[in-house]
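Now for one protein, fold included:
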Amino acid sequence: MALLNFFLVGPTKGANAEDTHKSTTQKATRTHERLMVKMMKIAAIGSTLRQASVNNGLIRAASELAPKHKMEIRAVDLNLPLFNQDLEKDPPASVLKMHELLDDSDAVLFSVAEYNYGVSGVMKNAIDWASRTYLPGRATHPLFGKPAALMGAGGGMGASRAQYHLRQVLVFLDVRPLNKPEVFVQRWTGTGERFDTDGELTDEPTRGKLDAMLTAFDSWIRLFVQDNKDDNECPN
């Protein structure tokens, strides 16, 4: 608020101008310091209900790497009814639970499986429910304005077509996806698979790509997260 007032009324003379500049600088520094140490909450939206899915495995692998990036990754429960506007008068408890998780998150991580060159029905169903506004006091849906990152595993193209399909959907929802690095994981290597039979990631180079993406994602998130505590502080 101090910075806004400074531009609205203009700089004052002498010591008052110096005090205003000092207060604004100190406030910005405190905000930056808080954001740098804050543990970011990430909601992870997968693509399938199958526990051994390699894309659920990517979420688990990212969750293991998350603490070093000051992140906590929480998977969204995708056991949702098919989207039906007839249910909106009394939204299902599972849908409200998802909305609360998204609302409490700083960003969203999508793990994208490719079904017939596009996103899966399970993922699209979750997004369709998330695109509505159900929570009291919210004027927009809980994905609105949130930073996001995409990753995916599949065949020879690593779910790349589905990820680009998803980016098109996110435009309408005003989600802010990280552009690079892109994570297109080819499930098979020349010597075998990158995942075991339980869907767990076993390939260290791929784990390194996830780590690099989370590093960039952390910086991306902190560009958008707002810290409103300063608005309630008394001026120095």
